[in-house]
């Protein structure tokens, strides 16, 4: 009988050892589960300020004076001498900055906000000073009393009523002494001026009787 009990205990001992070890292994598995399910840290979202800063950085570091395909005529170079340069205030708080190129005479960098254009003079039928960036479809029009920056691609003005110091002075002069428009009626002629005198009356021929 003792031999039978001893044999039974020998077979039961491994089972008891496994039963005691199994519960200890389960907590370790549970502890490892959260680490496996952990999600990677979310990347910071790009804010409008960061996007604007990135765009500005790219634009400021893009070379714009290396296009050899445009050749200016002597008339264009003469017109370039009359372009106002500097930073000019415009309406609605906008401003435009015009910087002459130090590499190619007659070319200008025109900036407004984050926009930047490479412009050069082109002929104008009205006599106004006109700069264009054909690739970007932009135009700078300089009149005697104001200037404007326009995008021909989107068909709207980017900045209007821009004035250099010389233009502001000229605009004040026009307010004090308005110049006649070509659409105004000509002044009336002085009385008697330009009127041809009537020829003397010719006497009637006598009829013989």
Write the layout of secondary structure elements.
Blueprint: H1 2-37, H2 48-60, H3 74-80, E1 86-89, E2 95-100, E3 108-112, E4 115-122, E5 129-133, E6 138-142, E7 147-151, E8 156-162, H4 165-176
Keywords: Signal
Signal peptide: 1-21
Biased composition (Low complexity): 34-56, 190-209
Query: What CATH architecture of the domain at 70-176 would you give?
Result: Beta Barrel
- C-alpha termini separation: 194 Å
Radius of gyration, taken over Cα atoms and rounded to an integer in Å? 44 Å
The low-pLDDT segments are 21-25, 62-66, 204-209
Beta-strand proportion: 15-25%
Q: Tell me the series of helices and strands, N- to C-terminal.
A: HHHEEEEEEEEH
- Overall strand count: 8
> How is the biggest beta sheet arranged?
8 strands, antiparallel
Mean pLDDT: 73
Number of helices: 4
What is the CATH first-level class name of the domain at 70-176?
Mainly Beta
Region (Disordered): 34-71, 175-209
Signal peptide: 1-21
Biased composition (Low complexity): 34-56, 190-209
Keywords: Signal
């Amino acid at each position: 009988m003792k031999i039978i009990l001893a044999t039974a205990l020998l077979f039961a001992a491994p089972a008891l050892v496994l039963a005691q070890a199994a519960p200890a292994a389960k907590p370790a598995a549970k502890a490892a589960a959260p680490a496996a399910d952990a999600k990677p840290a979310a990347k910071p979202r790009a804010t409008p300020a960061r996007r604007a800063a990135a765009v500005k950085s790219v634009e400021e570091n893009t070379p714009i004076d290396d296009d050899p395909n445009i050749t200016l005529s002597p008339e264009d170079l003469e017109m370039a001498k009359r372009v106002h340069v500097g930073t000019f205030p415009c309406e609605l708080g906008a401003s435009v900055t015009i910087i002459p190129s130090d590499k190619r005479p007659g070319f200008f960098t025109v900036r407004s906000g984050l926009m930047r254009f490479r412009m050069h003079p082109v002929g104008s039928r009205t006599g106004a000073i006109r700069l264009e960036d054909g690739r970007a479809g932009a135009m700078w029009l300089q009149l005697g009393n104001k200037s404007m920056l326009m995008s021909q691609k989107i068909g709207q003005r980017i900045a209007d009523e821009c004035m250099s110091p010389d233009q502001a002075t000229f605009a004040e002069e026009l307010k004090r002494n308005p110049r006649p428009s070509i659409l105004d009626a000509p002044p009336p002629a002085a009385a008697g001026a330009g009127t041809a005198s009537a020829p003397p009356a010719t006497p009637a021929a006598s009829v013989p009787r």
